[in-house]
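Researcher: I'm preparing a figure for a lab meeting and need a structural model of a single chain. I don't have an experimental structure, so a prediction will have to do for now. The sequence is pasted below. Please return the structure as tokens so I can convert it later.
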Amino acid sequence: MSQKVKVLSQEVIRLVDNQFEELLVKSKGLIAESRIVWRWDNEDVIVAYHPLVGSITFLNPTMAELFSLTLKEASTDLLMKYMQDTYPNVNKQVIKKDLIQALKFLFVNGFIKLKFSDKDVAIYEVEEYVKVNAS
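Model: Understood. Here is the structure written out token by token.
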């Protein structure tokens, strides 16, 4: 069964650039997108194919581990702790900034969804979700 490849509009990309951290804080956590086909390569890199995006992506060891932690729902606190434990000599603010950028990459590229109390929101649903839940 073939699926149509989805293309992100500039509006969605701007929305995520401007509001991702706020959406992340409001969310209850993150969960991996179930339609991703992936495998570990050389025990520390993930090779993944996303049918909706239509691309193959290689995740470096840190991104691969972050993605694997979201296979079961993961909170941003859990991911922050993982990063701090992995990089104990790096300043907490630097880790936070890097983690937000990494999660934004995973979200924009369709690897993860944000979990909210009423639904899981993928990149293709974020614009509508923000409009409906504007506060």
